[in-house]
Write a structure and sequence with these properties.
Keywords: Cell membrane, Membrane, Transmembrane, Transmembrane helix, Transport. About 80% of the residues lie in helices and about 0% in strands. The protein is mostly helical and about 300 residues long. The chain has two domains: about 90 residues, no CATH class; about 160 residues, MetI-like fold, CATH 1.10.3720.
């Protein structure tokens, strides 16, 4: 098990290094930030001073090595916009994004698992068809389109909810529904498929034959085994939450990392964009590690395989 974890950490480090390198190269070769921040009539001396101040006049390999050295030392650079550390600029937005994504993820699980279980237990009935129809509809709607529909109906027509901002809990409702709907639909479909496969297994039929209640059979025998393939889907959904936040935060003017990403890319604020990408990459590789460890915890066969491989 120790070798397994060490190998995962090595792959995590390599993945982060590749992502950081590609991001650095793409940002540095896609345009000159001086042309974005300085007025069109700026003198060549002003442009030269700007590039020298931010180290953009140095050869690209030198910039890259200096950036890696600074990152290893905890220095993620400074924002072109206000000169503050990029980590501080991004850190200010993290609480709002965590609130939005955490609530959205809870909604995904709270809706997806019950709907998937009910659909599987009511297989080939009108309940099953209704749940799956709703799931397909929810998954098919793009985030930006669903968000605009919610604004038009609940903010402009009914005037029940605020359309932008983050001042109260009412501001959270529509962004959470926008992000959580598609994820709940995916979880419901995968839980249904996994449950249908599991409830036909001999050990489930044996549990039913012993006179156990349906609730006990589902919770103690079917659901834990159905959760194993669903863990992977949940891991991917955690990554897609960040991508969904970029669009959703822009639609609802939610002051989180997603909205900051849009403004930083538009203004070519290199240090801020690189910090956001690094944060997202760390989040993704950590989620993948947690998913792999959950596999070993949920499925004894994986633990046995790791133990045999070590021996």
């Amino acid at each position: 098990m120790t070798e397994f974890i060490i190998g995962k950490f090595i792959r995590m480090f390599v993945a982060l290094l590749v992502i950081v390198t590609l991001t650095f190269i793409v940002l540095r070769t896609s345009g000159d930030p001086a042309q974005t921040f300085l007025p069109p009539d700026a003198s060549p001396k002003t442009v030269e001073d700007f590039r020298e101040k931010w180290g953009l006049d140095r050869p690209l390999p030198d910039q890259y090595l200096a950036y890696l050295k600074n990152v290893m030392g905890g220095d993620l650079g400074h924002s072109f916009v206000d000169g503050r550390p990029a980590s501080q600029v991004v850190g200010e937005r993290i609480p709002k994004t965590l609130l939005l994504l955490g609530t959205s993820f809870f909604l995904m699980l709270a809706m997806g698992f019950p709907l998937g279980i009910i659909s599987a237990l009511k297989h080939n009935t009108w309940v099953d068809r209704l749940v799956m129809s709703i799931a397909v509809f929810g998954y098919s709607l793009p985030n930006f389109f669903l968000g605009i529909l919610l604004i038009l109906f609940f903010s402009m027509y009914l005037r029940w909810l605020p359309s932008t901002g983050s001042g109260t809990w009412q501001h959270l409702i529509m962004p959470v529904v926008t992000i959580g709907t598609a994820g709940a639909a995916v979880i419901a479909r995968f839980v249904r498929s996994a449950m249908l496969e599991v409830i036909s297994k001999p050990y489930v039929r044996s549990a039913k034959a012993r006179g156990l209640s349906r609730f006990t059979v589902v919770v103690r025998h079917a659901l834990p085994n159905a959760a194993i393939p669903t863990v992977t889907v949940i891991g991917f959904l955690l990554g897609s939450l960040i991508a969904g936040a970029v669009v959703t935060e822009a639609v609802f003017a939610w002051p989180g990392i997603g909205r900051l990403t849009v403004t930083a890319v538009a203004s070519r604020d290199l240090a801020v964009v690189q910090t956001i990408v690094l944060l997202i990459a760390v989040t993704m590789v950590c989620v993948n590690l947690i998913v792999d460890l959950l596999y070993g915890w949920l499925d004894p066969r994986i633990r046995d395989g790791l133990q045999k491989g070590r021996n």
